[in-house]
Design brief:
Largest sheet: 5 strands, antiparallel
Order of helices and strands: HHEEEEHHEHH
Structural class: alpha+beta
Helix content: 55-70%
GO biological process, one term: cell-cell adhesion
Protein name: p53 apoptosis effector related to PMP-22
Membrane topology: Multi-pass membrane protein
Keywords: Apoptosis, Cell adhesion, Cell junction, Cell membrane, Cytoplasm, Membrane, Transmembrane, Transmembrane helix
Shape: elongated
Subcellular location: Cell junction, Desmosome; Cell membrane; Cytoplasm
Length: 189
Protein backbone atom coordinates (compact mmCIF):
# COMPACT_ATOMS: atom_id res chain seq x y z
CA UNK A 1 0.00 0.00 0.00
CA UNK A 2 2.81 2.41 0.81
CA UNK A 3 5.84 1.40 -1.21
CA UNK A 4 4.36 1.05 -4.68
CA UNK A 5 2.50 4.33 -4.89
CA UNK A 6 -1.04 3.18 -4.32
CA UNK A 7 -3.13 6.19 -3.51
CA UNK A 8 -4.23 6.34 0.11
CA UNK A 9 -7.73 7.48 -0.80
CA UNK A 10 -8.25 4.36 -2.90
CA UNK A 11 -6.75 1.92 -0.38
CA UNK A 12 -8.03 3.31 2.88
CA UNK A 13 -10.96 0.87 3.05
CA UNK A 14 -8.95 -2.33 2.60
CA UNK A 15 -8.36 -2.93 6.32
CA UNK A 16 -11.98 -2.26 7.38
CA UNK A 17 -13.10 -4.51 4.51
CA UNK A 18 -10.87 -7.32 5.78
CA UNK A 19 -12.26 -6.79 9.29
CA UNK A 20 -15.76 -7.09 7.84
CA UNK A 21 -14.81 -10.37 6.20
CA UNK A 22 -13.49 -11.54 9.58
CA UNK A 23 -16.83 -10.63 11.18
CA UNK A 24 -18.67 -12.65 8.51
CA UNK A 25 -16.39 -15.65 9.14
CA UNK A 26 -17.03 -15.29 12.89
CA UNK A 27 -20.79 -15.32 12.33
CA UNK A 28 -20.44 -18.47 10.23
CA UNK A 29 -18.40 -20.11 12.99
CA UNK A 30 -20.89 -19.14 15.69
CA UNK A 31 -23.95 -20.29 13.74
CA UNK A 32 -22.44 -23.28 11.93
CA UNK A 33 -23.27 -26.84 12.89
CA UNK A 34 -20.02 -28.18 11.51
CA UNK A 35 -17.61 -27.85 14.41
CA UNK A 36 -17.36 -31.62 14.66
CA UNK A 37 -18.76 -34.15 12.18
CA UNK A 38 -18.52 -37.85 11.47
CA UNK A 39 -16.03 -38.49 8.72
CA UNK A 40 -17.32 -41.82 7.45
CA UNK A 41 -20.69 -43.49 6.90
CA UNK A 42 -22.93 -43.83 8.80
CA UNK A 43 -22.91 -40.15 9.80
CA UNK A 44 -23.80 -40.36 13.46
CA UNK A 45 -22.11 -37.36 15.11
CA UNK A 46 -22.49 -33.63 14.50
CA UNK A 47 -21.70 -30.77 16.86
CA UNK A 48 -21.69 -27.00 16.94
CA UNK A 49 -20.32 -24.61 19.53
CA UNK A 50 -23.67 -24.81 21.31
CA UNK A 51 -24.82 -28.45 21.07
CA UNK A 52 -23.80 -31.99 20.22
CA UNK A 53 -26.10 -34.17 18.13
CA UNK A 54 -25.97 -37.88 17.40
CA UNK A 55 -28.26 -40.38 15.76
CA UNK A 56 -28.32 -44.13 16.28
CA UNK A 57 -28.50 -45.15 12.61
CA UNK A 58 -28.51 -43.72 9.09
CA UNK A 59 -32.23 -42.90 8.89
CA UNK A 60 -32.87 -42.13 12.56
CA UNK A 61 -33.67 -38.88 14.31
CA UNK A 62 -30.92 -36.62 15.62
CA UNK A 63 -30.74 -36.48 19.45
CA UNK A 64 -29.18 -33.20 20.53
CA UNK A 65 -27.66 -32.31 23.89
CA UNK A 66 -26.75 -28.75 24.82
CA UNK A 67 -23.08 -28.16 25.57
CA UNK A 68 -24.09 -25.31 27.87
CA UNK A 69 -24.71 -27.93 30.56
CA UNK A 70 -20.94 -28.43 30.79
CA UNK A 71 -18.69 -25.83 32.39
CA UNK A 72 -16.16 -26.20 29.58
CA UNK A 73 -18.94 -25.70 26.99
CA UNK A 74 -19.94 -22.42 28.60
CA UNK A 75 -16.28 -21.39 28.85
CA UNK A 76 -15.55 -22.20 25.20
CA UNK A 77 -18.67 -20.39 24.00
CA UNK A 78 -18.08 -17.39 26.26
CA UNK A 79 -14.44 -16.88 25.34
CA UNK A 80 -15.08 -17.27 21.61
CA UNK A 81 -18.09 -14.95 21.87
CA UNK A 82 -16.05 -12.31 23.73
CA UNK A 83 -13.40 -12.48 21.01
CA UNK A 84 -16.09 -12.11 18.35
CA UNK A 85 -17.68 -9.11 20.11
CA UNK A 86 -14.27 -7.43 20.36
CA UNK A 87 -13.83 -8.06 16.63
CA UNK A 88 -17.18 -6.38 15.93
CA UNK A 89 -16.14 -3.41 18.09
CA UNK A 90 -12.85 -3.17 16.18
CA UNK A 91 -14.78 -3.26 12.90
CA UNK A 92 -17.01 -0.38 14.04
CA UNK A 93 -14.00 1.61 15.29
CA UNK A 94 -12.14 1.02 12.00
CA UNK A 95 -15.12 2.30 10.00
CA UNK A 96 -15.14 5.42 12.18
CA UNK A 97 -11.34 5.85 12.03
CA UNK A 98 -11.09 5.53 8.26
CA UNK A 99 -14.19 7.63 7.56
CA UNK A 100 -12.60 10.71 9.14
CA UNK A 101 -10.62 12.77 6.65
CA UNK A 102 -7.77 13.37 9.09
CA UNK A 103 -6.72 9.88 10.05
CA UNK A 104 -5.87 9.41 13.73
CA UNK A 105 -2.94 7.03 13.74
CA UNK A 106 -2.81 6.52 17.51
CA UNK A 107 -6.47 5.50 17.37
CA UNK A 108 -5.58 2.95 14.68
CA UNK A 109 -2.82 1.48 16.85
CA UNK A 110 -5.38 1.04 19.66
CA UNK A 111 -7.60 -0.92 17.27
CA UNK A 112 -4.61 -3.19 16.57
CA UNK A 113 -4.08 -3.80 20.28
CA UNK A 114 -7.76 -4.61 20.74
CA UNK A 115 -7.54 -7.08 17.84
CA UNK A 116 -4.74 -8.93 19.64
CA UNK A 117 -6.94 -9.18 22.75
CA UNK A 118 -9.79 -10.49 20.57
CA UNK A 119 -7.44 -13.09 19.08
CA UNK A 120 -6.42 -14.29 22.54
CA UNK A 121 -10.06 -14.82 23.56
CA UNK A 122 -10.92 -16.52 20.26
CA UNK A 123 -7.96 -18.89 20.48
CA UNK A 124 -8.82 -19.76 24.09
CA UNK A 125 -12.31 -20.83 23.00
CA UNK A 126 -10.94 -22.69 19.98
CA UNK A 127 -8.52 -24.66 22.17
CA UNK A 128 -10.91 -25.40 25.05
CA UNK A 129 -13.56 -26.84 22.71
CA UNK A 130 -11.69 -29.76 21.06
CA UNK A 131 -9.67 -30.69 24.13
CA UNK A 132 -12.65 -30.98 26.45
CA UNK A 133 -15.09 -32.22 23.79
CA UNK A 134 -12.93 -35.20 22.89
CA UNK A 135 -12.36 -36.10 26.55
CA UNK A 136 -15.88 -35.48 27.92
CA UNK A 137 -18.23 -36.50 25.09
CA UNK A 138 -18.33 -40.10 23.91
CA UNK A 139 -17.62 -40.25 20.20
CA UNK A 140 -18.23 -43.22 17.93
CA UNK A 141 -16.58 -43.80 14.59
CA UNK A 142 -14.10 -41.50 12.95
CA UNK A 143 -14.81 -37.82 13.62
CA UNK A 144 -13.19 -34.63 12.40
CA UNK A 145 -13.30 -31.00 13.36
CA UNK A 146 -14.94 -29.55 10.32
CA UNK A 147 -15.74 -26.43 8.33
CA UNK A 148 -17.33 -24.19 11.00
CA UNK A 149 -14.40 -24.88 13.34
CA UNK A 150 -12.12 -23.93 10.45
CA UNK A 151 -13.97 -20.64 10.04
CA UNK A 152 -13.35 -20.00 13.73
CA UNK A 153 -9.61 -20.51 13.27
CA UNK A 154 -9.66 -18.34 10.13
CA UNK A 155 -11.26 -15.56 12.17
CA UNK A 156 -8.59 -15.88 14.87
CA UNK A 157 -5.76 -15.81 12.31
CA UNK A 158 -7.30 -12.77 10.63
CA UNK A 159 -7.47 -11.02 14.01
CA UNK A 160 -3.76 -11.61 14.56
CA UNK A 161 -2.70 -10.53 11.06
CA UNK A 162 -4.93 -7.46 11.02
CA UNK A 163 -3.69 -6.58 14.50
CA UNK A 164 -0.15 -6.41 13.07
CA UNK A 165 -1.33 -4.26 10.15
CA UNK A 166 -3.21 -1.86 12.41
CA UNK A 167 -0.26 -1.59 14.81
CA UNK A 168 2.33 -1.07 12.06
CA UNK A 169 0.32 1.35 9.89
CA UNK A 170 1.19 4.43 12.02
CA UNK A 171 4.89 3.82 11.32
CA UNK A 172 4.22 4.86 7.71
CA UNK A 173 2.13 7.92 8.51
CA UNK A 174 4.16 10.35 6.38
CA UNK A 175 4.24 8.03 3.37
CA UNK A 176 0.49 7.39 3.56
CA UNK A 177 -0.40 11.05 3.84
CA UNK A 178 2.06 12.02 1.08
CA UNK A 179 4.35 14.15 3.26
CA UNK A 180 7.57 12.56 2.02
CA UNK A 181 9.43 13.68 -1.07
CA UNK A 182 10.09 10.85 -3.51
CA UNK A 183 13.68 9.77 -3.87
CA UNK A 184 14.96 9.02 -7.33
CA UNK A 185 17.80 6.61 -7.86
CA UNK A 186 19.33 8.12 -10.94
CA UNK A 187 22.97 8.51 -11.55
CA UNK A 188 24.15 10.85 -14.25
CA UNK A 189 26.62 9.45 -16.78
Amino acid sequence: MVKYGLDYTRCRWILPLLLGIGVIFGIIALAGRGWLESQTLPYVQQASLWQSCRRPDQGGEWNCVSLMGYAWGRAAAATYLVGFLLLVICFALAIIAFAIDTLRFNFIRGIGGLLFVAAVFSIMGLVIYPVKFSSEIEMTGINMFSWAYGFGWTTAIMEICLGFFFCCLPNYEDQILGNVKPTYFYSSP
